[in-house]
Amino acid sequence: xxxxxxxxxxxxxxxxxxxxxxxxxxxxxxxxxxxxxxxxxxxxxxxxxxxxxxxxxxxxxxxxxxxxxxxxxxxxxxxxxxxxxxxxxxxxxxxxxxxxxxxxxxxxxxxxxxxxxxxxxxxxxxxxxxxxxxxxxxxxxxxxxxxxxxxxxxxxxxxxxxxxxxxxxxxxxxxxxxxxxxxxxxxxxxxxxxxxxxxxxxxxxxxxxxxxxxxxxxxxxxxxxxxxxxxxxxxxxxxxxxxxxxxxxxxxxxxxxxxxxxxxxxxxxxxxxxxxxxxxxxxxxxxxxxxxxxxxxxxxxxxxxxxxxxxxxxxxxxxxxxxxxxxxxxxxxxxxxxxxxxxxxxxxxxxxxxxxxxxxxxxxxxxxxxxxxxxxxxxxxxxxxxxxxxxxxxxxxxxxxxxxxxxxxxxxxxxxxxxxxxxxxxxxxxxxxxxxxxxxxxxxxxxxxxxx
Length: 452
Ligand code: FCB
Fold this sequence. Notes:
TIM Barrel, 17 helices
């Protein structure tokens, strides 16, 4: 047995990266709209103003998904499209857009997985301090309530947030992503706590107003370490590294347990409390109960992992060898990553595992025959999916896999330079061309991964 018989083969996108229609029908600025206007932040001074124009072409995009046999679609809802000021006034046109999208998906037998927050925080609320504001968990709860009520009976699967590691680590820590802040340790600890509280409040609101039987989780991207060699000592070293909280604040923000222990266990990792002593906000038992709402799965976005080897009673990273294979964005290709991620995360948290993102960017071009041949992507996906199948065969409950991305899109600071899609997008004409990998993925789906 490999993948379970109702395994969900999916593809993923996010609102700012594909929708465009940045000021249409009542949508207000998100922090990414603002950030893109700051000179020097985005490759080629590009923006997501038009992106893939999915806002106007979603029917064509759903038809393509159907043609490719995709069973589940992970998309995100733009908070400032629904609540232009972040709270208060609800923009009916924004809700209607997502309703049409969801109806179209359901009509085509594709299961919608909605992410409430994939980085496009309302600019109006950023002006009030963003995630540093003690009211931010309440703002997010209000937004979750609006979505839950409207999509009751239609959306059953939710991710509250995408990659807190990145939107706090890169957005508030390193200043590389919107809103471009580089805050000190104590402020970062405040933001972390508010984000976690916001997640908890959103889970509660979704369950209260979103109908019965919802499946909810948070899409994380904590750093995964894998054994350099498959020996008991290296495996132990990799496990220890994966669940450690490093001393440097920037590394700590990318750790698995900092975000996952509070959500999955209701406690901050003791290592974090020790390292951040004196820099922590007030954390009450009630806060921790709120953060620790029951969730249904553990979702991991995964592109690569880092090899680690045992060293005395500790561990040390093994550098990637010279010339190791990298994708066009420069990320190493590490096909064993899904196996170790699935195994470690399941052992630690005991929930079914969802791979909420995985894929690669490549130098895709339209060939003279009018097609897009992307053998590297097929090779990458085959290796990663074999590793995932190994985890399934080894007894890890895996429920879904979302390929990043359904189509080429606005890759944040890299803008349109990096192509992650199964579907090629010609941005000048908005023509879509499924790449070879898209047809290959279709056959994998049809065979439930048995033909890998
Ligand atoms: C992830 C993001 C996603 C996309 C991929 C390549 O970190 O969640 O939006 O940028 O990386």
